[in-house]
Amino acid sequence: MRAHEVIAALDRGDVDAALDSGLMELACSDDFARADVSDNDRERILAAAAKLRFAWDARERYHARQQRLDERARKRDARRAHAPSADGTVNPALPAAAANALAKALARAQGK
Fold first, then answer.
1. 84 pairs with which residues across the strands?
2. Which of 7, 46, 76, 80 stands the most exposed, by the fewest C-beta atoms within 10 Å?
3. Which residues form the domain of 68?
């Protein structure tokens, strides 16, 4: 039965082989009595499956968060981009106060 392949893979620490042997299917089916699996091995299979589900869920949450952060950055960059105003001039990427402070500092540096 595949249950013994899963157990052997878990004994070796080879989670990929356990997955290939049907770890998640076995854990979801809860058909351990027919597979002649000891209580200890049953607990190991269920624990390994739970760890994998937790890791997969965490990965999905991470990817969703990355997408949200990327979208926020894209929108922020679009707002900061140089956009022509109604009179055809280009608005500065800096806020007005920062642009004025920078202009004053440049004027002082140039001795004006």
1. 90
2. 76
3. 2-81
